[in-house]
Design goal:
Blueprint: H1 2-21, E1 32-43, E2 52-61, E3 66-74, E4 79-87, E5 93-102, E6 105-115, E7 118-125, E8 128-135, E9 141-143, E10 164-172, E11 184-201, E12 204-213, E13 216-221, E14 227-232, E15 237-248
Amino acid sequence: MRVFTLALAVALTFAAQTGAQTPENDGPNVNIARWAAGTYAYTRPSAPADRGWERFHMNAYADGSRTMTIWHDLKARNAQFTVVLRVGPDFRPLETFLSYWVAEGFKGSTLIRVDGDTLTASASGPAGLFEQSVDVPNVFSIGTHPVSADGWHLWGDSGAVGDTQTARLYSMEASADVSKPPLGTLRDLPFTRLGEETVTVPAGTFETLHYDLMGSKIWITKQDRLMVRMVNERFDLEYVLTDFASGSNE
């Protein structure tokens, strides 16, 4: 006990000395260049109803990388996803954490890391523990299924209007089947850049890039590729930004 007490006293003394040598910051956080946060509503245009919501908070850091935290509540299907995405300055994935709840209960959680051309994933949940290693191309993204970061799938866009392009997506297994672990599969993601458009939604008016993404029309902001609106007429779905706030230290 005396040894523990002595060690604790030394640790506290060191912490106090370190704190005294480093003045408290009374200005903006120097790590955060800018931030943005918002909420989406999920509806069916043909019969508007409250299907759920999604909230996000994104930090863009001084080194150009970004982190987005997402809380996704699709109550119409009793699904709740929590996702954290970290990408480099060019939007290439670095790390992802996700936790999925579905109608049957807890589906699992997964930690994903990208090192060069290798993606490793570690998943745990009712189905057990699983490890996965996948070779990934230079241009790819991770699809966790909330809509906030769907614009990040298109970071390899050539800028050509009207041409169909193909992105590569590591798409997560997110069905209600808890016997299937939340691991991903590489797949093609065709999209077409439709141009630029000024869009007004309940959260405000935004200058956006307009795309067709596998049949869904999406509008995203230019600098951080944040989703503003998504409409899928085939499945009678709409996701729209209802509130938005942002700030900059740049």
